[in-house]
């Protein structure tokens, strides 16, 4: 409880920073880490997800989804929340662009077919603005925006396990 409390405090300081660095391996390993911005003072007002298209040698295209909680059973949500968090909190953001080639290679290997190997992986991010409900309680929704943020040409060595 002390580690979680220290990790989630909205303020820093020498003691807090030192304690966070001490408990970071445990927090990351256990999946208990959380950014303060989920709660306050300004939570993210976007609904987001990441998706990939795998383009094969023969020209066919297959969609590969990162886990999305609304599409999973309760048990699968428990198992895959960490991967959703990775996609939404890291892969989606431009400041983590160094991850994109590795993510694309992983997706290419996961979709490899000996007779029809993948030749490219395209990463897309989707978002929709979250708006407060109308006065009568009716939910509001913005249209989804789709943005291609990375194209990776698969190299032959990328498909080796």
Counting helices, strands and paired strands, the structural category is alpha+beta
Mean pLDDT, as a whole number? 86
Beta-sheet strand percentage? Answer: 15-25%
Strands in their spatial order, largest beta sheet: 2-1-3-4
Poorly predicted regions: none
Please count the beta strands (DSSP E, at least 2 residues each): 4
Please work out how many helical segments DSSP would assign. 4
The coarse overall form would be globular
**SSE arrangement, N to C:** HHEEHHEE
Sketch the major β-sheet. Answer: 4 strands, antiparallel
Q: Could you tell me how far the N terminus lies from the C terminus, measured between alpha carbons in angstroms?
A: 40 Å
| Share in helix | 25-40%
Number of domains: 2
Structure description:
With 161 residues, the protein is α+β, with helices and mostly antiparallel strands. It folds into 2 domains: 34 residues, no CATH class; 116 residues, no CATH class. Helices cover 33% and strands 23% of the residues. The protein has a 4-stranded antiparallel beta sheet, covered by helices on one side. Strand 1 and strand 2 form a beta hairpin. The longest helix is centred in the middle third of the chain and has 18 residues.
Secondary structure: elements and pairs:
Blueprint: H1 2-8, H2 14-30, E1 46-56, E2 61-65, H3 74-91, H4 100-110, E3 118-129, E4 145-153
Antiparallel strand pairs: 1-2, 1-3, 3-4
Helix pairs in contact: 1-2
């Amino acid at each position: 409880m002390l580690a979680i409390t220290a990790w989630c405090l909205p303020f820093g300081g020498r003691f807090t920073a030192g304690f966070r660095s001490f408990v970071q391996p445990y927090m990351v390993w256990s999946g208990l880490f959380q950014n303060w911005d989920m709660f306050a003072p300004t939570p993210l007002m976007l609904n987001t997800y990441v998706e990939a298209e795998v383009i094969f040698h023969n020209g066919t295209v297959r969609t590969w989804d990162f886990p999305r909680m609304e599409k999973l059973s309760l048990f699968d949500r428990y198992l895959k929340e960490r991967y959703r968090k990775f996609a939404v909190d890291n892969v989606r953001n431009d400041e983590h662009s160094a991850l994109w080639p590795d993510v694309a290679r992983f997706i290419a290997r996961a979709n490899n077919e000996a007779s029809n190997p993948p030749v490219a992986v395209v990463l897309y991010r989707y978002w929709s603005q979250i708006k407060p409900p109308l006065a009568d309680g009716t939910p509001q929704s913005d249209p989804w925006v789709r943005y291609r943020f990375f194209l990776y040409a698969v190299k032959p060595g990328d498909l080796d396990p």
